[in-house]
Specification:
mainly alpha; flat
Length: 193
């Protein structure tokens, strides 16, 4: 009798859940249709401005920037700057370096920095466990020679923990610096997360 009532309760709950999910799916479909209708009503901008339009408006006859070659060999040297004009050699080198900085470059760089940070945090946790054990052991000893040795070991572990904490701060700052550098270079945020 009890099993039968449990089955009936389960069946009722299942039907309720099925009805609830279909009702929410219907509501989602309605929302999508309304959004599509709203987008059809929104008018496109009257004029799209390009770089050519801006040059024509200002009367400037500045040449268009040279496209960056994506298919260039990784070991190819950047072209030398002409003495009569063009970009200075430092700007060309920077442009060539930026072209080499792909998604893989940024992801690898952030991954290495995060791995260093994780390693330092793990080491800090291990050192803290060692310090706790040495503190407990120090309190349990009554022999002055043993206490002195344990006290020295504890001091060394505390000094190492301070060094590791500074390393953690440096690694955290390095990750923030990489993210800031990527932001300034116009790199998509997903590449450095």
């Amino acid at each position: 009798m009890r099993n039968q009532s449990l089955r009936m309760w389960g069946l009722g709950f299942g039907l309720w859940a099925l009805g609830f999910s279909s009702a929410s799916a219907q509501a989602l479909g309605d929302v999508a249709k309304r959004e599509e209708a709203r987008r059809k009503q929104v008018k496109a901008p009257a004029k799209v401005y390009t770089n050519d339009d801006l040059r024509a408006d200002t009367g400037s006859a500045a040449p268009a920037p040279a496209p960056v070659s994506q298919g260039a060999a990784p070991n190819a040297a950047p072209p030398a700057a002409s003495p009569a004009g063009g970009q200075p050699k430092d700007d060309q080198q920077a442009a060539a370096d930026d072209a080499k900085k792909t998604e893989a470059y940024w992801r690898d760089r952030v991954a290495k920095a995060r791995a260093d940070l994780d390693r330092a945090k793990t080491f800090a946790d291990a050192l803290q466990s060692r310090i706790n054990a040495l503190t407990t052991d120090f309190a349990a000893r009554s022999d002055p020679a043993q206490r002195a040795q344990i006290g020295n070991d504890r001091q060394k572990a505390l000094a190492e923990l301070d060094r590791v904490k500074k390393e953690i701060e440096a690694n955290t700052k390095a990750i923030a610096d990489i993210q800031e550098e990527a932001r300034k270079a116009g790199v998509p945020a997903g590449w450095v997360r």
